[in-house]
Backbone:
């Protein structure tokens, strides 16, 4: 049985997913990173493939211990106004379930 799908566990899993996708500061500075614009944090050379990297990371992190959640295989969408918190509140909350 995996961890409860609580707000704090979701945030932790999301930050781990960001770190695995190449945004290393997310694990240790989650709150700061969540408030940042995606296009300012994600290196420009990663922007095009970042949605697929983040989905793959979220699947890897969330479907294994300690979470053991299911993940809908849908890539996130974002624009120059999107912050990471928006991805957590919208996309991530929609694709993950116990």
Residues:
């Amino acid at each position: 049985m995996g961890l409860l799908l609580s707000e704090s566990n979701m945030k932790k899993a999301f930050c781990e997913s960001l770190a695995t996708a190449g945004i290393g500061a997310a694990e240790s500075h989650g709150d700061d990173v969540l408030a940042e614009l995606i296009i300012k944090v994600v290196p420009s050379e990663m922007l095009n493939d970042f949605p697929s990297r983040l989905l793959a990371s979220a699947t890897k992190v969330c479907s294994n211990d300690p979470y053991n959640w299911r993940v809908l295989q849908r890539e996130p969408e974002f624009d120059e106004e999107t912050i990471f918190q928006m991805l957590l509140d919208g996309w991530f909350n929609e694709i993950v379930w116990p």
Observations:
- The chain has a mean pLDDT of 95.
